[in-house]
């Protein structure tokens, strides 16, 4: 469903492969401090190739079941971002969640916006979804701009929605309707 696509001259996006575990672990190690205020507290093992290999395997099994898609941004062989389409629910809901981050060295270049736009279009044209949802911390203005540029609209605020950086934090909730 998701084809490899160029997001910029040097960066492409594609489905993660089992062989990407080392690159993914290296990206998490490289961005550990940068991501720490935006993500849950992670165990030390999370930053290893072994952990990431198991996570990729689990997510690819979910892909086979039609429940999600683990995507990554690459500049050559260097993994520089991560996108997850997760929790696909069929039936009357036809919905999925979206999460993403871009490497600190590549942030601010429009890659998150381009990646989210490709994902939204793929969800509309190839996955047959009706809607996608995403959430951001209240103070994550950059991510909010990404979602708005990709057609998402804020639909509310969820108090103490996720435990981020060790604290239950409020999140703005967003959705994009893919079909009228």
TrEMBL record:
<dbReference type="GO" id="GO:0008999">
    <property type="term" value="F:protein-N-terminal-alanine acetyltransferase activity"/>
</dbReference>
<keyword id="KW-0012">Acyltransferase</keyword>
<keyword id="KW-0808">Transferase</keyword>
<dbReference type="InterPro" id="IPR051531">
    <property type="entry name" value="N-acetyltransferase"/>
</dbReference>
<dbReference type="InterPro" id="IPR000182">
    <property type="entry name" value="GNAT_dom"/>
</dbReference>
<dbReference type="InterPro" id="IPR016181">
    <property type="entry name" value="Acyl_CoA_acyltransferase"/>
</dbReference>
<feature type="domain" description="N-acetyltransferase">
    <location>
        <begin position="11"/>
        <end position="174"/>
    </location>
</feature>
<dbReference type="Pfam" id="PF13302">
    <property type="entry name" value="Acetyltransf_3"/>
</dbReference>
<comment type="similarity">
    <text>Belongs to the acetyltransferase family. RimJ subfamily.</text>
</comment>
<protein>
    <submittedName>
        <fullName>Ribosomal-protein-alanine N-acetyltransferase</fullName>
        <ecNumber>2.3.1.267</ecNumber>
    </submittedName>
</protein>
């Amino acid at each position: 469903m998701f084809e490899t696509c160029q997001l910029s001259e040097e960066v492409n996006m594609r489905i993660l492969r089992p062989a990407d575990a080392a690159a993914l672990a290296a990206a998490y190690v490289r961005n550990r401090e940068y991501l720490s205020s935006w993500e849950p507290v992670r165990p030390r093992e999370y930053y290893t190739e072994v952990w990431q290999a198991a996570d990729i395997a689990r997510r690819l099994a979910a892909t086979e079941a039609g429940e999600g898609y683990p995507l990554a941004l690459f500049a050559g062989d260097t993994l520089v971002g991560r996108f997850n389409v997760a929790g696909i629910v069929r039936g009357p809901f036809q919905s999925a969640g979206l999460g993403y981050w871009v490497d600190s060295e590549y942030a601010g270049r429009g890659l998150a916006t381009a990646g989210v736009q490709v994902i939204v279009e793929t969800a509309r044209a190839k996955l047959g979804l009706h809607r996608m949802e995403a959430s951001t911390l209240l103070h994550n203005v950059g991510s909010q701009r990404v979602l708005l540029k990709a057609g998402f609209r804020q639909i509310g605020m969820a108090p103490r929605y996720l435990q981020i950086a060790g604290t239950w934090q409020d999140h703005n909730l967003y959705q994009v309707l893919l079909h009228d």
